[in-house]
Amino acid sequence: MTQQAQREGRLRRIRSRVRLPRTRRGQRRAFQVTVLACVLALLPATWLNAAAASRVRTVEDVPGAPVAVVFGAGLWDGEPSPYLAHRLDAAARLYERGKVRALLVTGDNSREDYDEPDAMRRYLVAHGVPTDRIVSDFAGFDTWDSCARARRVFGVDRAVLVSQGFHIRRALALCGAAGVDAYGVGVDDRHDVTWYYGGTREVFAAAKAATEAAVRPDPQFLGPKEDGVSVALR
């Protein structure tokens, strides 16, 4: 049997398994089911926007808070990625303008050769933030972990969150569920491939976020309470 014949045979078997409704009633029901599935899939993202939209501000108009929480966004050769650098730039401006008195940098340090919080600290110090005003969370493996640990480990109950615009609403919703009263600064960035990928990813991440907000699980690593934030605020 030739390869062409084999391909045609496979196509016939696939078509025999996928049978579209032939009656008008069946087609209408299939359409209704598809619409319902789309609506259900978008409900979590709608919840995120509704819950957090009013708390997204700019560096200039965000209400002050004791602490800014800066979420990790990847490293390039050990240094902050451009997206993370933009978050850190916004956090440095918040400190310079007296909007916050300390910065909690939260990111991934799950292996020895990858250390987001220390890279974030170095960048902030190089941009004028005193090192004793920076606190590192080395177990911020995802947004929920960062929010839960900010409240339960570091004792943060009021904060300004700093992230990209496509992520800040999820961060606000999750930190609110974790017990942190927060406003968010959504950092503007060029709408490149990474930006569109991040925005698309948020649609799918919203379902996980809704589950985390409802269940409020322990973070992957909780650990003992730390006084770094209270010391930095003194």
From TrEMBL:
Q: Which CDD domains does the record match to this protein?
A: YdcF-like
Identification of the protein by name: ElyC/SanA/YdcF family protein
Protein's organism: Streptomyces chrestomyceticus
Family annotation (Pfam families) = DUF218 (PF02698)
Which stretches make up the DUF218 domain? 67-183
